Every structure is written in structure tokens, then in C-alpha cells.
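step 4 of 6: structure.
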Amino acid sequence: MTGLFAPRSIEELLSLLAGSGEHEKHFIAGGTDWLIKNRGNISEDAVLFDLSKIPELRGIENRGSYLRLGSMETMTSIHTDPEIRLHAAALCDAASSMGSVQIRNRATVGGNLANASPAADTPGALAALNASAVIFSPSGTKELSIEEVLGTCPNKNTLSDSDIIMEFRIPVRKSHVSAFKKIGSRSEVSIARINLAVSAKYEDGAFCDAMVFVGTLGTAAKRSPEAENALLMPISLRKEGFKKALCEFAGRMIPSRSTLPYKQSAIQALAEDVLEMLEARGRSLEKSGEKSHG
Amino acid sequence: MHIRLAMIVGVMFLKIELKINGKFRTAEVSASERLIDVLRQKFGLVSVKEGCGAGECGACTVIMDGEAVCSCVVPAFQADGHDILTVEGLEENGELDVIQQSFIDCDAVQCGFCTPGMIMSAKALLMKNPCPSREEIRTALAGNICRCTGYVQIIDAVETTAARIGVCRR
Ligand SMILES: Cc1cc2nc3c(=O)[nH]c(=O)nc-3n(C[C@H](O)[C@H](O)[C@H](O)COP(=O)(O)OP(=O)(O)OC[C@H]3O[C@@H](n4cnc5c(N)ncnc54)[C@H](O)[C@@H]3O)c2cc1C
Ligand code: FES
Ligand code: FES
């Protein structure tokens, strides 16, 4: 007998979870992945939890040292939010480039991470912004990095079946800039073929404290230390160094994959664009004198 | 602790309450039904078309709480408590909505399969932004595929609608 619960609070959800024992559990956020995957083959004894009526999973707010982003926020609410645009530009870029308007109106940021498709767009952006995910379960709360949630297996996260992604915490960092770009098969509706997300501290044209993540090379967010180092190079060498480092990184991640040559040329084009976005954002940050950008 | 279950269902059905084209309605739906199934099969709203069934083509677009969504990727139980608008809800007192008339006048309809979805995507855009640029219209319609028209007449129709509504000057 399939059961469906639509709890109205986290407390209610946790009690229901604790009471649902060994039954197969499903969480449904916006349903854009879940419905396509599960329609018609939901197991007889599965228990479904609709997350759409839980207020604690919503909201975007600036808490001073970090932005709190509820896991049920949609791509549309994210990319139109002024705090996200200001402090987490890479996430704004990623959310606005996902699917079509109709998909962005439904697809949630929690679902995008939990689904763990290697082609997902927002996990890389969140990782580059050094965000953490707050996980709730009947046994307690924990805070994990995006990489910890994704683990190493494509299409499978590391959460247990009673773990719910409650919210994300995105540090608000002074003088930081960030950017995301992807190359997909179609301009609007496209599962990214490759994507690149970067954040770094910007000072007088130079970058430091860089975090660089690439999607689709096995998981949705693989960190590239060589590309992070390349961003520290003198400005005259930086662009070529960054491109070369990302090219080598792709070769290291998917050495024998038939898509490697495509991904290597795509990532170099992305590297140039993302670097330009970061530089432009850095300059406008310095001009505005407002030193707390994402 | 006593838990009030918002909904609990047996194998097949649960009851949802929603507003469709301005009227309160109830329906019994199964866990794997989609909003499109409820609209077409339970309420006979056959303007809602199924093309791909995977969120890719936009033929099934309806407006949910003011936002365009693909009804083929909305679980029916999540429509509980929400407000749905389809093409059938646009006509008033036997008169077509400006947007419907503009689609006709601009030759934006050929086979017509994509038309209801296009109209709902465009309607959602105009509800928020009554003076969209052509680029904004293109973005709003990017999730709607048309195999017949080549899109130019459709974009013209949306622009014409905006001009006829009269908020913006062109
Ligand atoms: C036409 C189309 C285009 C798309 N384009 C893109 C694209 O360009 N880029 C991209 O990245 N994705 C894309 N997607 C994929 C999808 O829309 C996203 O992955 C979306 O963010 C998933 O969110 P959701 O709310 O719909 O999740 P759901 O489908 O509701 O859930 C997905 C999975 O995550 C689990 N889950 C959801 N929320 C939580 C939570 N809070 N805690 C724990 N587990 C949870 C669910 O149990 C389920 O297993 C596209 C999908 C479609 C249909
Ligand atoms: S039928 Fe829903 S998007 Fe194609
Ligand atoms: S008019 Fe035929 S698909 Fe658009």
C-alpha cells in the first residue's frame, strides 16, 4: 500500500519519518526529476513525503555572515533574488541558465543536489561558493559540504534514506566575486554537457582564495586545484594558464572517455568566458566600493 | 505526541482541492498521476496537450499560481491548494482573450498543437511584464516547441497582444 504524507512542518515530517520504519521512502520537491524517474513504477509499500508544504524549507535571507537558502526554493526565486545576485552571482548564473521558464518555476535547489546528476548545474556553483548543506533526519542535524553530499558515484548522493536537505548556507565574503557558465546542447532546455563555477577574492586585478569546480566529469562538482593555482598567476599569463590547467584537469578526470576531446575544447571556451565575467564583476565591485560581493 | 496527518492514502487515491479556471474543484488522484492527467481526464480540459511528457516541449503548459509550469512534470497531489489556469479559462462572456485574438490575427497558429502551451507561457509573461522586449518574449517561450511556424509569427502575436493591452507604447 503506497502511502503519501504532506507534512506541514519539519517536526511533523521527522515524526512521520521515524514512524515509517523500513518502508522505501521518497521525498518529492518540485517533482521534475522524480516524476519522470518514478511514475508508473512506485513500489507497493513505498511511502511518499511531499516537501512542498513545509515552510521551514523555504526562504532566502541574509544572516550577516552567510545567506540562508531554503532547499525548496526554485530556480526562478533564486535567480531573481537581489541577495543571491549580490553575494552568490555564480548561483544566480546557474539558476537562470537551467531548463526553461517552466522548469525553473518548479525545479528546486535541494532537488538539483539530491538528484546528483553529473550534469546538474547548481551543485557546482554552490560548491564554488563554499556553501554547506544542512541535513535533518530523525537522528539529528549535520552540516555537510556539497562534495560530501555528492560523494563519488554519479546519480547517487551519500545521504541516508531519512536525510532531508533542509537549507544551504552560503558564506558572505568580502571582496569575493563568482561566476558560472555552461555549454549545453540547446540554448534553453539543456542538461549541461559541461559547466564551470568559480569564486575568488579580487584585489587590484589579481585573484586569490580561488575555488574552481567543474560539472559532468563524473559528478556534478569536481574541484580542480590546478585551475585554482592557475588563477593566482600574473595577469599576463593567467588566461592561458587557467585554460591549460582546466584542459589537463579534464584529461585527468575522464582519461579514456570518448567525450574527452569535446569536453577539453568546451572547457577552454568556458574558461575564457568565466574569467571575463569574474574580471568584469571584480572591476564593478571595486568601482562601487562595495566590498562584499559573492 | 499526536500527529495530524495532512494526507494519508491507500493504494490508489487521495483527495485534492484546487481552483481551476476560477472555480473550486476537488478530485481523487493516485500518487503517480500528473497534473496534466487530472486536467484532461477528470475535468475535460483538452486544451492541455501532451507532447513529450518529459518537460521538454511545453505543449502541456498551464499557469499555476501565476507561473507557467509544464503540467506533465507536476505531481497531481502537489496541485492541492493551488490555482490553475488553462486556455479554457481565458475566454470571458463568449469573447476571446486579447492574446487568443492576436494569435489568430498574426497567423501564429498552423497545426495548433503547440498553441495552448504557447498562449499560457505568453500569458504568464504578460501578467508579470506587460511590455516585454522581443528578447524577453523569446526567453519566456524558449521551453515551448513549435514545429510549424518558425516562431516569428508567435513572437509577433505576443508583441501585438502587449500593444493591444495598451500599457506600453511602441
Ligand atoms: C526539461 C527539463 C530540463 C532540465 N534542465 C536542467 C538543467 O538545465 N540543469 C539541471 O541541472 N537540471 C535540469 N533538469 C533537471 C531537474 O529539473 C533538476 O535536477 C531539478 O533541480 C530537480 O529539482 P526538483 O525540485 O524537481 O526535484 P525532485 O524531482 O522533486 O527530486 C529529485 C530527487 O531529489 C530528492 N530530493 C528532493 N528534494 C530533497 C531534499 N530537500 N532532501 C533530500 N532529498 C531531496 C528526491 O527524493 C528525488 O530523488 C531538467 C529537467 C527537465 C524535465
Ligand atoms: S508534454 Fe509536457 S513538456 Fe512536453
Ligand atoms: S503550430 Fe504546429 S506545432 Fe506550432
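step 5 of 6: annotate
 - The longest helix of chain A spans residues 260-288.
 - Confidence is low (pLDDT under 50) at residues 186-190 of chain A.
step 6 of 6: archive
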